[in-house]
Amino acid sequence: MLRFALLAFDADDTLWQNERLYVEAQAKFAGLLAHYHSQEWIRERLYQAEIRNLEHFGYGVKAFALSMIETAVELTEGRISGQDLQTLVDLAKGMLQGRIELLEGAEETLNLLKDRYSLMLLTKGDLFEQENKIARSGLAGCFRYIEIVSQKTAPVYRSLLEKHAIRLERFLMVGNSLRSDILPALEIGGFAVYIPHELTWQHEHADPPPADHPGYYQLDHIGLLPVLLEQIEAG
Amino acid sequence: MLRFALLAFDADDTLWQNERLYVEAQAKFAGLLAHYHSQEWIRERLYQAEIRNLEHFGYGVKAFALSMIETAVELTEGRISGQDLQTLVDLAKGMLQGRIELLEGAEETLNLLKDRYSLMLLTKGDLFEQENKIARSGLAGCFRYIEIVSQKTAPVYRSLLEKHAIRLERFLMVGNSLRSDILPALEIGGFAVYIPHELTWQHEHADPPPADHPGYYQLDHIGLLPVLLEQIEAG
Question: Chain A window 59-88: which residues touch B at a Cβ cutoff of 8 Å?
């Protein structure tokens, strides 16, 4: 019997580029307000609005757009032009369409693993956005289960595994967020493979577990996952 | 054996008031722009923006807020003030909090039915918003399953029932939207109970099925559902 009954993959910045879209939008936003404040101050105020609005609006591009608009009103003392406002709304629309840029090796790795294991796509965020991204990614067919949740905490992981009747110690999570992917999976007694991405939203940062934490692994690249799995299964 | 293995309930305007929040917000929005255009024209342009933005933003309050902002920029030719913009964002935040007003008889009906049948809450919309509303409603404990989907079409119903291993002819859907609740449930061969709500979003309108369509029922009030179910089970 295989050790793992289920491999779950985070999506944004684990399988495809996502944070990059936000970084680009933040740069355009800061550029739009450049004659009002310094770039650093604009970015800092936007980040504060995003965090403040999480409880109202949750994650995703629409929430980000509303935070940009609030910040623009605040930082221009209400003098933001109608044209600039429309630019912000259009910026959000642009983030929600266009090609999904898969991370190198993601598609090949999923295709290699999908015949041996049950794969789950497990992502948090806006349902509408995430479904659209999954459809555009072309990867939906690799997954037996697709789960979109509003947050990724230990109780959420536990109830998902219960729903699919998977034992916790036969679960492995792969992702780029220590806070959302790695720590909660370890907390419930599962395995976790951390694959850092050069761009990870400040809010997702957390201290890593000790390197020798049982069940915790770190890889530089998703393409290395099949070999790691072979080693664990053999060990 | 009972005829129904699963009763699914729509949430917004079937179990609790929802459209009322939008109607109130639309009135405030039209009031804010009153010195630019007629109330009818403002409402019409807002509705057009909502429909146009469905493909970009999906359903829910955040999408509605962005449509209000776009419409305000358009109808004021960019002269909307920063203060009015903040009012629109705050209007959206207000819609996302506060007490959930249950429809009369909803709680009692669910409590009466939950011991006899498996109940599902089946709602479309923004995941974050719908989860918050379910939590605030106090009704979550009545349901065996809670499913939040981005759209309610016949294929979505079919795949949900497949997932839960429910035979299509043992499924009954209860809701206030002909388009999203009633027609697709009948299309897949299930039963559907239409309970009209005085406020239903224009976009959800559809022609009703013929009154003698097999499996189709209409009630004036959710409190009448238990008696209807007894009649169907007895018949």
Answer: 59-60, 62-63, 65-66, 69-70, 73, 76-83, 85-86
Instruction: Give the residue among A211, A164, A162 at the shortest CA–CA distance from A188.
Output: A162
pLDDT of residue B199: 81
Structure tokens at A178: 């220590």
Q: What is the pLDDT confidence band of residue B11, given thresholds at 50, 70 and 90?
A: very high
- Domains of chain A with CATH codes: 6-16+102-234 (3.40.50.1000), 19-95 (1.10.150.240)
- Chain B residue with CA closest to A70: the answer is B86
Q: Which two tokens stand for residue B52?
A: 């146009």
How many contacts, defined by CB atoms under 8 Å, are there between A and B?
91
Which chain B residues have a beta carbon less than 8 Å from that of A149? 127
Radius of gyration of chain A (CA): 19
Strand partners, A8: A120, A173
- Tens-place pLDDT, residues A106-137: 999 999 999 999 999 999 988 889 999 999 99
Query: Which chain B residues have a beta carbon less than 8 Å from that of A127?
Result: 58, 126-127, 148-150
Q: How far apart are CA A54 and CA A63, in angstroms?
A: 8
Strand partners, B109: none
Q: Which residues of B touch A96 (CB under 8 A)?
A: 56-57
